[in-house]
Write a structure and sequence with these properties.
Strand content: 5-15%
Helix content: 25-40%
Number of helices: 14
Number of domains: 2
Largest sheet: 6 strands, parallel
CATH topology of the largest domain: TIM Barrel
CATH class of the largest domain: Alpha Beta
Strand order of the largest sheet: 1-2-3-4-5-6
Radius of gyration: 25 Å
Order of helices and strands: HEHEHEHEHHEHEHHHEHHHHEEE
Length: about 425
């Protein structure tokens, strides 16, 4: 089979894996040490999106042959799709050629399981080892590892890769047993725990000596498929929160299930709305950076996130008794919960209010949107008597905000 045909098949087969971010690794380049590549620079290699995802990686499978029969996977053994397989040298040469053309700044390599987990991991590791040792490639490498592989192989993968990841695929053991019986959630979690121990050990060794070898400096990540089963958003977020706290994952990615040809009757006939994936990312961000707990974002009556509004606004509407919040008095954790205000804005507020009281006219200078954090439309919020409404000028006309997430303490009426 021609190389271009292989590339077309295996690049398309890799599109279902969302965990391909290159943020968080160490900065290095080949200017002083020789070789080729870097993890920084200009041009297409610098294409980082706000959510941390990098679009400049060569993202391919080593092969889409697989001995597993995961019902949600288009590359399962029972699937009738065109098959292809790269050799180690072909992947190495493709990576170098694409880099020299400034198309990419790194490699994301995954694979179907061929023969067994150990053999597949050996082939994947050989690509990274060849790039690093024989071609002095300093660019970003992300390797997808296999939890069933020998711990020594996973350890070697971490020596050559910036980031390694193991996909748990589905958030519950029951869902895996239903759709992917060859996979085991407990075994995957044990492999993640082993990786984290090695990452922590490598960081401790490098604090003692900068010459100590690094191990996956960009950490580990995973992916969960959303919508392949009836698992609720609450269960998905609980699993993600557990992974962050116990294994210190850098990212959990959510991938909306996509219907595949000749699918099993156990799978849904239509894909879930993509906005559900988006809401999960928003909720994930709130847990990681806004000091929210998972149980605050969903309820027993509504275990799935509201698709019509973002999770932060949904929480605020369920907790109207906490609003409006005084920007001059509220602690940081309450400021983070105001709709329309992000972490950087909160840091600005805390910095400025140390020197003087904030006023309404200060908000635009702090890059805060009045239309988002001071909404003047329904749903209205009952304002306690000790607070006065905020009066502003809108296009030369005076208006009074009756529904506001924030307020300023006033000694006399406006």
């Amino acid at each position: 089979m021609e190389l271009t045909r292989k590339l077309a098949i295996l690049a398309d087969a890799a599109k279902y894996d969302a965990s391909c971010a290159s943020s968080g690794t160490t900065k290095r380049n080949s200017r002083a040490s020789g070789g080729i590549g870097s993890t920084t620079g200009t041009g297409i290699c610098h294409s980082y999106t706000p959510d941390g995802r990098c679009v400049s990686l060569l993202k391919i499978l080593l092969t889409n042959y697989c001995i597993y029969d995961c019902l949600y996977c288009i590359n399962r053994i029972s699937s009738d799709v065109p098959r292809a397989r790269f050799t180690v040298d072909e992947v190495v040469q493709l990576t170098l050629d694409f880099y020299r053309r400034n198309y990419i700044e790194g490699l994301f390599l995954s694979s179907g399981i061929i023969r067994n987990a150990d053999y597949t991991m050996e082939q994947v590791i050989a690509v990274a080892r060849t790039l690093r040792q024989e071609h002095a490639f300093r660019g970003y490498i992300h390797l997808k590892t296999i939890p069933e592989a020998a711990p020594a192989l996973i350890e070697e993968a971490g020596r050559w890769a910036d980031r390694i990841s193991i996909n748990i695929e589905l958030p519950t053991a029951a869902a895996l047993a239903q759709l992917a019986p060859e996979k085991n959630l407990a075994r995957t979690r044990r492999a993640m725990a082993g990786i984290q121990e090695r990452i922590d050990g490598a960081k401790a060794a490098r604090r003692e000596s900068r010459k100590a070898p690094a191990f996956a400096p960009a950490g580990q990540s995973t992916q969960m498929i959303v919508g392949a089963t009836d698992t609720s958003d609450a269960a998905i977020l609980e699993q993600a929160s557990s992974l962050y706290s116990e294994h210190k994952l850098r990212r959990v990615y959510y991938s909306a299930f996509s219907p595949i040809p000749d699918a099993s009757s156990k799978l849904p006939a239509i894909a879930p709305p993509l906005v559900r994936e988006h809401r999960l990312y928003q909720a994930d961000w709130l847990v990681r950076f806004y000091e929210f707990r998972v149980e605050e974002l969903t309820t027993a009556e509504a275990p799935n996130l509201d698709l019509s509004i973002d999770p932060k606004l949904a929480w605020a509407l369920r907790n109207r008794h906490l609003f409006p919040i005084d920007l001059n008095k509220a602690p940081r954790h309450l400021l983070l919960r105001i709709p329309g205000i992000g972490t950087k804005s909160v840091d600005r507020i805390l910095k400025v209010r140390r020197w003087h009281k904030l006023r309404l006219e200060d908000l635009p200078r702090l890059h805060l949107s009045l239309t988002r954090c001071c909404p003047s439309s329904s749903p209205p919020i009952t304002t306690p008597p000790r607070w006065r409404s905020i009066a502003i000028s809108s296009r030369g006309r005076s208006c009074r905000l009756t529904a506001s997430w924030i307020c300023f303490r006033r000694r006399r009426p406006l």
